[in-house]
Structures are given as C-alpha cells and as structure tokens.
Design brief:
Layout: E1 2-7, H1 18-21, H2 28-48, E2 53-58, E3 76-78, E4 97-101, E5 123-128, E6 131-132, H3 135-145, E7 150-156, H4 157-166, E8 171-178, E9 184-186, H5 189-205, E10 219-225, H6 228-234, E11 241-244, E12 247-252, H7 255-270
C-alpha cells in the first residue's frame, strides 16, 4: 500500500508567527525540527497501518525544510522546488491515500494560524467551479482526479473544519488551537506525536474503504488577487478572462492542467507586484 504525505509548515505544532516559517526568521530552524518530528510520527503510523511505501513531499516555500538526517529511514523524500505539481508533485494513480500534514486554513479565515492561499501577499481567494478552496482543497482535488482519497489532515482547529467541510470522512488531528492569526495554544509535543501516530495508523488501515470526492468533467478556476495590478499581470496569460477588477478566470480540461495554469498565473501576476503600494 502506497501513501503520499504532503507536508507544509504553518500547521505544525509550535509554529505560530511569520518568524517561524521564513528561512531568515528567528524561529525557523526550531520549526524545522518540529516539522520533522511530526512527519516521522505520521510515517511511523502509516507503516503500522499497513503501508509498504511512504513518499513525503516537502511542500513549504522552497521545499527544503525537513531535516533529512533526522527523517525516518523508511520514507522517501521529495525535496526541492523546481517541480511541475507543486505541493503534490509525484502523486499519481498508484497511491492509495493522501495525507496533508501541517496544513493551514485558506486566506481570510478567522482564528487560523498564518492563514493564506498559496501566497498571502498575492491571493485573496481561489475558486474551482465557484467553490472557494484553500491549499487543502486544491491539492485534494488534484489527488481525487487520480483516484486517490484524502485520508488524513493535520493543523489547527480551523484547518480541521476546512478539511471536514471538504470531505467529512477524513481523519484529522488538531495539534494546536489558533487564538488569532499569530497566536496559538500549542499542545504538548509528545501528546501531539502520539495522536499523529495513532490517527495515521487508523487512516491507512481504512484507506482502501475511502472514496475520493467527485471532480467535475469541466473545470474553471477563478483567482481573486490582493491588488488590481496583480490581475493585470495575470491577464497576460493566454486563455484568461477578466471576471472583475481583481479576479481572473481560466478554464481547464483537468486538475493537472489547472495546477499548471495556476502556477503560470501566479508567476505572471508576481511580475506586476509592488510591495510599496
């Protein structure tokens, strides 16, 4: 049984502030340790639950966060940022379940640690066929199209709600409780790791029973940017239409194509970004 783990950083226990997730931040190096501990706990639980192969995709920022020397030797690691499918690169039809570890709620969520949707400075909302999704929903739809169900998600209490709204049967672990955007009540690390092992084992044991959510045959993505000039930049991509001043829409044949177009739109928009105004 093959399990794919996409690991982000904002939803890790002990992480609460921007300084914890930026490479130059005062808390970043310690956050890497916390992240690796949680990854190892989930890997351990996955193998206990019957996994025969576990692939971990380091999915925060430039994808070089997990401390390789401390990673469980049984896990394969996808590391590095030059890859086609972003946070779920390497995920295909051969996998039996998707685990989203250390994820965060989408931008604009109240009481959610470091809430954002791919880029806090650029993206206000992202919708697929009119439904607002965060990184969890977008990546889970990508997996669902390949027949891979979302079996587990971890983060704060707002991420848990977002996961359950997307797929009620997903197993979740709340590792901390957001009391603001940059303030969290963090659980004891040992308790967190025990919960992660136990839940991962359960999720993997039940993976064959889970069905992925349905993905529509026809897809349209709308991205509402934080600034009008960002939408101006995104409009340089062929096939886009302007839905309103800050929103650009594009159609795609499948989630694989939508994944690629999303990244192209972001890059085109970023060329027009100005942090001063």
């Amino acid at each position: 049984m093959k399990i794919f783990i996409s690991a982000d950083l904002e939803g890790i226990n002990g992480v609460a502030a921007p300084e914890d997730v930026e490479e130059t931040g005062s808390g970043y190096q310690q956050a890497r340790v916390f992240m690796t501990e949680e990854v190892n706990a989930v890997v351990s639980g996955a193998f206990a639950g019957g996994a025969t192969e576990v692939v971990v995709c380091d999915s925060h920022n430039v994808a070089a966060n997990i401390k390789v020397e401390q990673l469980d030797d049984r896990a394969q690691l996808l590391r590095g940022d030059t890859r086609a499918n972003s946070m779920v690169h390497g995920l295909d039809e051969s996998f039996d379940g998707l685990i989203l570890l250390g994820y965060h709620a989408k931008f604009g969520t109240q009481n959610a640690i470091l809430d954002h949707t791919f880029s806090p400075s650029m993206i206000r909302d992202l919708r697929v066929n009119g439904v607002s999704v965060g990184e969890l929903g977008f990546n889970a739809l990508f997996a669902a199209e390949k027949g891979v169900p979302l079996i587990m998600a971890t983060g704060d209490q707002s991420l848990e709600k977002e996961a359950k709204d997307f797929y009620q049967e997903v197993e979740t672990v709340v590792v901390k409780y957001a009391e603001g955007r940059f303030c969290a009540r963090c659980l004891p690390r040992i308790k967190t790791q025990d919960m992660l092992v136990e839940t991962a084992e359960k999720a993997v044991r039940q993976a064959k029973e889970k069905k992925p959510v349905a993905v529509p045959d026809s897809l349209e993505m709308e991205i509402t940017f934080q600034q009008v000039n960002l939408a101006d930049g995104a409009m340089r991509v062929t096939g886009t239409r302007r839905a309103d001043a800050m929103t650009v829409a594009v159609k795609a044949a499948d989630m694989e194509q939508l994944m690629a177009v999303r990244q192209v739109l972001f890059n085109a928009a970023a060329g027009f970004y100005n942090p001063l105004f």
